[in-house]
Structures are given as structure tokens and as C-alpha cells.
């Protein structure tokens, strides 16, 4: 079996933040800047509260079958929810998007190298 790599983005909006929670997130904002965003196994959170209350978690996962992308998406959503709940952050409009990198189109350089 071929190992497949999945990239999963879980997006949502912070909801009902207290002044203390907002201050906490703003203090941590440099660590969660979109310019440092990366897909990681544990999930990387990015947001910019000064622009809007939206956030994105980026997860990296693997599977053997094409259908494993559904399990990877569920795991990513559960991990994002758990992170938010642990800190008491409310959220709404949670949605996910997943990509199987084995199905991603090759870039121009990759097509040239494959010849």
C-alpha cells in the first residue's frame, strides 16, 4: 500500500470571547501569525484578531486508502475543538477542507523532473 499524505484545514470564528480571552489571544498573536503557518501533525493555529475573529488550524495526517482522508478530517476537527474547549474559547462556523497530496496536480518543475 502507498502511504498518502493529507493536509487538513479547519476554519472557524471565535465566538463570545471575554476581554481576558481576547487579551490572551492578542498576547499570543505573534506565535500564530499567518506568515508562520505550517501544516503539522499536532496542528498549527493562525489568526489575526485585529483584522477579524476568524482562525485556521492546519493539520498534516497520513493514511493508506483514499477513504482515510475522511478519518483525517474527523481527527483534525476533534483536535481543533479540543484545543478551543481546553482554553474555554467559543467558536462558530467550524468547517474543514482536506487535500490528498497524492492527488494534487504536479507543478511545472515536478512535471519536468518526472520525465
Q: What is the overall silhouette?
A: elongated
Strand content: 25-35%
Distance between the termini: 24 Å
Q: What is the number of E strands?
A: 4
**Major beta sheet summary:** 4 strands, antiparallel
Give the C-alpha Rg.
16 Å
Strand order of the largest sheet: 2-3-1-4
Number of helices: 3
Mean of pLDDT: 90
Helix coverage percent: 25-40%
Contiguous uncertain segments of 5+ residues: none
Order of helices and strands: EHEEHEH
- The assigned structural class equals alpha+beta
Secondary structure blueprint with pairings:
Elements lengths: L3 E12 L3 H10 L15 E4 L6 E10 L4 H19 L3 E11 L7 H7 L1
Antiparallel strand pairs: 1-3, 1-4, 2-3
Overview in brief:
With 115 residues, the protein is an alpha+beta fold. It has helices at residues 19-28, 68-86, 108-114, and strands at 4-15, 44-47, 54-63, 90-100.
Task: Describe the protein in words.
The chain has 115 residues and is α+β, with helices and mostly antiparallel strands. It is 31% helix and 32% strand. It contains three helices and four strands; from the N terminus they run E-H-E-E-H-E-H. Strands 2-3-1-4 form a four-stranded antiparallel sheet, covered by helices on one side. A hairpin with a 6-residue loop joins strand 2 and strand 3. The protein is elongated, with a radius of gyration of 16 Å. The model has no long low-confidence stretch (mean pLDDT 90).
Amino acid at each position: 500500500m502507498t502511504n498518502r499524505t493529507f493536509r487538513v484545514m479547519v476554519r472557524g470564528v471565535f465566538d463570545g470571547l471575554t476581554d481576558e480571552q481576547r487579551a490572551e489571544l492578542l498576547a499570543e498573536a505573534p506565535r500564530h501569525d499567518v506568515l508562520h503557518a505550517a501544516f503539522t501533525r499536532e496542528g498549527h493555529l493562525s489568526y489575526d484578531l485585529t483584522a477579524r475573529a476568524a482562525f485556521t488550524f492546519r493539520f498534516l495526517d497520513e493514511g493508506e486508502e483514499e477513504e482515510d482522508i475522511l478519518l483525517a478530517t474527523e481527527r483534525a476537527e476533534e483536535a481543533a475543538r479540543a484545543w478551543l474547549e481546553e482554553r474555554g474559547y467559543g467558536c462558530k462556523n467550524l468547517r474543514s477542507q482536506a487535500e490528498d497530496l497524492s492527488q494534487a496536480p504536479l507543478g511545472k518543475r515536478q512535471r519536468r523532473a518526472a520525465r
